[in-house]
Automatic annotation (TrEMBL):
Coiled-coil ranges (or none): none
Transmembrane among keywords: yes
Transmembrane segments: 21-38
Protein name (Swiss-Prot/TrEMBL): Ferritin-like domain-containing protein
UniProt keyword annotations, A-Z: Membrane, Transmembrane, Transmembrane helix
Keyword Transmembrane helix among record annotations: yes
Amino acid sequence: MKKTIQVSNQGATLDTSRRNFLKLSGIGIAVAGLTLIGCDDDNFEYMENNGIFDLGKGDVGVLNYAYALEQLEADFYTKVVNNFYSGISNAEKEVFTDLYHHEIIHRDFFKAAISGVTDNVLPTLEFQYPNVNFNDRNSVLATAKALEDTGVAAYNAAGKYISNPTYLVIAGKIVSVEARHASAIRDLINPGTAAFSGDDVINANGLDVAKEPKDVVMAAGGFIKTPFTWKEQGIN
């Protein structure tokens, strides 16, 4: 069944009083008042006999994949802003608060979008951070850098698996915001340098690197406690 859904950022708690490149202008275009044409959800079966969720096929699988990554980032930044590390500057608090708001909106957007086209939505995941000291600046920044770099690379590679042009445009808008996040974190680590677009994330053609879903899930797997599969992409 084809379904049309409306997704709005009404009620989001973004502080729009400050003007910088991470603010509402960057995220609002991606989530405000969108109309999405849903996939045909009659062909998707997600829950395996062992109770492990499968992300699904086609566009819905990609949306669930993005939703999993956004859940992870939102959870991480929630922990950061609820207990800022010792000695954090006001400027750093501002950056992390902006990122927190963005990732919450991204997470909630994907949940609403997927719920509008199928009842089989990736459940709320549980996460763990065994090697992260949330009271240590270097540990938090290093983890944020890894998550943001991985997120950008994930969107870049996933685009080719999206068939619905509306979804592809949305993914393009969101990955542009994620790239700003990555640059901001990198600049906090190495201010005033070219690290914001370092050779480790930019290829020889001057483009952001792309990572296939299997590589992304392997990289992020240490943070994700809730198991899931994506058989279409060979993730079991």
